[in-house]
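HUMAN: Forgive my ignorance: could you write out one protein's sequence and backbone structure tokens?

ASSISTANT:
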Amino acid sequence: MVDIPVEHFSYIALFVFFAGLYGFFTRKNMIAMLMSIELILNAVNIQFVAFNYYLYPDLMEGMIFSLFIIGVAAAEAAVAIAIIINVYRRFKTINVEKVNSMKY
């Protein structure tokens, strides 16, 4: 088995994290913003699993934390999609800038 240095996993996680951060701040579509948040959470999962593999290869804490994050991400996505559906029903758009400029 070839050992990949932990820095490589950190670079991948850093790239995924900043891609999610960039997507969250530059997108106007609520669904694209939700997908960007999921990218950020996946970057954290990569780090947990990589550090667990290198620091404690016989223990499973990193994997268990990753499973909790996946569960939280699923619940967050369900709630966010419900909110997006309600916003769309009220304003007929999911563009954040248009929703902010409309009166409630």
